[in-house]
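Allow me, if you will, to draw on your knowledge of protein folds for a short while. Thank you for your consideration; the sequence and its tokens are set out here:
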Amino acid sequence: MSAMFRSFASFNYRTWFAGAVISNIGGWMQATAQDWVVLTELTDNDATAMGITMALQFGPPLLLVSLTGWVADRFDRRKVLLTTQTTLMVLALGVAALLLTGVMTLPLMFCFAAAFGVTNAFDAPARQAFVSDMVSLEDTSNAVALNSASFNMARLIGPAVGGLLIVALGSGWVFVANAVTFLAMIIALLLIRTDQLVPRVKNRASGGLARGFRYVAGRPDLIVVFVMVFLIGAFGMNFPIFASTMALEFDRGADGYGVLSSVLAIGSLTGALLAARRDRARVRVLVIAAGVFGVASLLSAAMPTYWAYAAVLVLVGFSTVTMLTTANGYVQTTTTPALRGRVLALYMAVVMGSTPIGAPIAGWVVDAFGPRAAIVVGGVAGLLAFTIGVGWMLWSGRLHRREDARFLLTLDETRPLSVVKAMQPRAFDDRATAATTPIRLPRED
């Protein structure tokens, strides 16, 4: 099996991946329908209302981070996911019923968006941490990248199919279809062989999320990663607002919006697959991707036609997923296992919690100045994140000239000690050997 797909050697991961692809397709179909319903059926092209909907859906991970990370670390993640996936399925059926009977209102949609957000607040850190339960530490970065590939393969199909279903059958049936796809993820979780899961480090010490905060506070590299992801997440990754309003600007309907989302996924899938080829996640890749995102966003804002805008979205999608996949893999593989759930909850709070701050602002900018201005704001945020990343590399002293090449630079990376692989039996408690601070040896002159 090629290095790109090495995580597929695990039965549990193969099963998980198959269920995730199907479920993610339904998720993207529903996301497209929800955005279009708020923008065109419940309001008269009100981008601010769409931003509020996104804020309600993505705000709970930030508000509940102290609880969700603790749940991901303390309880059986597989059972947590069975509970959250079932709840999400029931909520999708509820929205479908209200849309099909014609009684859905904007306040009701706000309530459902908040309910989706609360459920996803528990689902996301458990889902991310569960990946490391199915594969070895050495394959975690690869598994995270393949997860992202699954997500973006679905993104290629889901929005376009969702847009077509809205036109052909109506938005309510898209939510019904999504509810059905949740069964794939639930079945996959039931098929997981629990005896093949990697034993988890037991952590019953007090401190809760405070220990996660203290851990991150002592890791300047993680702080920089979190800040960069927050900036781009808050101001640059409001794609539903950008794509839907740009589709309207180019006189396109729901199918045109769906196509833009799928085009964005072409670059996203490419970025995820390339990330899967890398042996580990590196900060320098994250920094470069942030810079590319900023430039690509500014270019997209200047495109004069629908298809020219769509073409640049490929590069936007590529840089976005490269950045997020690298950040996720870096956080997972360089964090102490006993605190991984809490640190991932903090990370997901940054990724998803940035939306409640940025989405309403983006919606207001669209209403006041047009969608192109909002995209420019996102591009500037990307360039600022790039500048912060480069500044940290220079300040930290990790960026230096390679000894074997006069004009090339290299960056010292934080990564798990290689001794973990050689000393990790199935029931071994690796709290000590999973330390992530690099060992610095004095250089000999």
In short: Confidence is low (pLDDT under 50) at residues 415-445. DSSP finds 17 helices and two strands in the chain. The chain has one domain: 3-197+210-400+409-419.
